[in-house]
Amino acid sequence: MFNSNCTIKFYLISLYLAKLILIQKFVNPSQERHSSFIQTLYREMNRYSLSYIYRGGFSSDLTSKILSLAETNMENQSEASATKKKVYFIMVESLQNITRHQSVPNKENNDKSSFFVIQHLQNDYFITSGNIVENKNVDSIKSKISKVNSLNKESLKEYHKEMLSQNEVSDKGGAGLGLIEMARKSGNKLVYDFKEIDPEFSHFYFQIKVSVPEPVPAFQDINTDRLKWIEGLENLILEKNLNLIYQVDFTQENLISILSMTEGNIGNKEDIALRKKIFNIIVELCQNIYKHADEPETGKHGKSGILLIGEKDGDYVVTTGNLILNSKIAPLCAALDKVNNADFDELENHFTKIIMQEEDVNKKGAGLGFLDIKMKSKNNLSYYFSPAEGDYSFFEIQVKTSVK
User: Fold this and answer.
1) Which residues share a beta bridge with 204?
2) Residue 211: predicted pLDDT
3) Beta bridge partners of residue 173, listed in sequence order
4) Which end of the chain has fewer CB within 10 Å, C or N?
5) Radius of gyration of the chain from Cα atoms?
6) What are 327-376's pLDDT values in tens digits?
7) Selected residue with higher pLDDT from 98 and 24
8) Residues 121-158 pLDDT 10s
9) Which CATH code for domain 20-48+248-404?
10) DSSP secondary-structure letter at 31?
11) CATH class label, 56-240
């Protein structure tokens, strides 16, 4: 016979297996491979403290929106003024480097060849950029970075004065002045890498760390581990045709900034109806995280989640993921299945009925948002649940819409 301890263990194992069976009952097998990618990405971005990744065409207007989003996040984290100024300056220099050098004539899909990543890990900010450069310029860039990395704090100050006196400024920027200033502001070495694409072009990866509080006087050694990981991540992003990945606490304040960052990557500016439709879908999915995600940590300003936006052949795919309690899986699946099984006339009638009711629409739960998403996208909502830690599961939902 089992003793009491064995009985308890057996009971706990049975509960765990029952929970897995319940979760797996609602799994969409066709989404398994894709969902595994999203959950892994969510975990890895948490592990490496990635806030967001943007890939696509960069412009001055987009640069200001990325900076605005970073400012909002640092305000929410009550970051010190000195730190915000340093991070902001280095972000500006990194983004300007992209806009100056991203124009590559006769390269296919050049509008998707640049990217920007920001990470906040403990007391450090890591700012990473990537863009295409001509191979004839690689040695010059390497030489400038190596020169900057070879100097200490005082030598950098003198070198900066020397370069200013030479007045070597062109439409592509100063002769390494931006690199010098980034090294001085951050107090850290510049990390970089080049990956040759073909005999004419290479991909230039650049990363710099801002330490909080002030770094020690001697510059820290170069560590390429984080940059190598981001290089690998970018390959996955290209493979999955993703333009934007946003992984941080979702709040009402940063939703506007997220939407503004998507503007440059959604159809043509003339496609007002398409842009409005996709914006509405993004709003609904992000608000679903903000209102309904379950957060293991208490007292946080927002809700943890991940947003992915991709595009291929005119189809736009918006995906979100977040943690929810296992006790919510069954009713959430029922709401999603009800929406997916209804035709569009039924959806419109049901939507109108809910709107016309006098009760507060905000109290009606996520079902209303799901109705609106299907009506706007003209497609069913793909979803997936996978076991996570403790009493939580990872909930993913994906919506596809088309310009057609």
Assistant:
1) 131, 194
2) 79
3) 170
4) N
5) 24
6) 999 999 999 999 999 888 888 887 777 666 645 544 444 457 888 899 88
7) 98
8) 777 888 998 888 889 989 999 999 999 999 988 899 89
9) 3.30.565.10
10) G
11) alpha beta
